[in-house]
Design a protein that fits this description.
31% of the residues lie in helices and 26% in strands. The protein has 263 residues and is an alpha/beta fold. It folds into two domains: 119 residues, ATPase, nucleotide binding domain (Nucleotidyltransferase, domain 5); 108 residues, Nucleotidyltransferase, domain 5 (2-Layer Sandwich), CATH 3.30.420. The strands form four sheets. It has a five-stranded mixed β-sheet with strand order 3-2-1-4-7. The protein is globular, with a radius of gyration of 19 Å. Pfam families: ROK.
Length: 263
């Protein structure tokens, strides 16, 4: 029996790793990602989001998270708004000082010039869910919607991200989609899932009429109770709950940094 050692060595593929940071309203969390499986390698680190959450303060906190792991490779970071070429364009639910700031350069300067990719948080979640989560077997156009304080969105076509869609701000029946169907609207008005699902259906149909996706993935905290409201939806396109939950942002950010999907 002959088994040449060089053949064995060459057949072993080294583990591909990435690093992502997910910036949220209450916490900034990051970790190392196995890019073959979409699983975190070891524990994540979470630090409180500084208040006020100014660009400089957040950049310092992101750097502190990264330094916990001694990570020096490409870094992906999520932001809750529109980002183009590292420049923040909107700040709907965060400090207005973010608008016009070069988040990519600001974070990089806190990390000795490390390579940084910044992308919308829903886009990051969409990338992760399409590759490793609820959309991993889907083809064609997949739309992820996150239901929380507002409605975030991501559109992926066969693994390619169309960045910075803002379906939460489209007009549906004379009202912004997120003012009609965000999870916060249901909480504030004390609606049943049945009543809220009617509003979500209107939003999904509006998106269907515009782009005919193959699949909707619904995320956000309310997706944990998807069995109570997804079956009540009356739109045409299949709807499934997000699978990765609170790791999706970290995983998607790492994907963006390693695949350069936003450049």
């Amino acid at each position: 029996m002959t088994n040449a050692e060089p053949t064995n060595a060459s057949s072993e593929t080294p583990q591909r790793r990435g690093f992502g940071v997910d910036v949220g309203g209450s916490g900034i969390k990051g970790g190392i990602v196995d890019m073959d499986t979409g699983q975190l390698i070891g524990d994540r680190v979470k630090l409180p989001t500084p208040q006020p959450a100014t660009p400089k303060a957040v950049a310092k906190t992101i750097a502190a998270v990264v330094k916990e792991f001694d990570w020096t490779g490409p870094l992906g970071v999520t932001y809750p708004g529109v980002v183009t070429h590292g420049i923040v364009q909107t700040a709907a639910n965060v400090d207005k000082k973010w608008i016009g700031s070069n988040a990519r350069d600001m974070i990089s300067s806190e990390l000795s010039g490390q390579d940084v990719t910044v992308l919308n948080d829903a886009d990051a979640a969409g990338l992760a869910e399409e590759r490793y989560g609820a959309g991993r077997d889907a083809t064609g156009v997949v739309v992820l919607l996150t239901f929380g304080t507002g409605i975030g969105s991501a559109v992926i076509h066969n693994g390619i991200l169309l960045p910075n869609t803002e379906f939460g701000h489209i007009e549906v029946g004379g009202k912004e989609a997120e003012h009609r169907a965000a999870s916060s609207v249901r909480d504030r008005r004390g609606w049943s899932f049945k009543k809220w699902a009617k509003q979500v259906t209107k939003v999904l149909i509006a998106i269907e009429n515009a782009m005919s996706p193959e699949l909707f993935i619904v995320g956000g905290g309310v997706s944990r109770k998807a069995d109570q409201w997804v079956p009540l939806l009356k739109n045409r396109t299949p709807v499934v709950a997000a699978a990765l939950q609170n790791t999706a942002g970290i995983v998607g950010a790492a994907m963006a940094a390693t695949r350069d999907v936003t450049h």
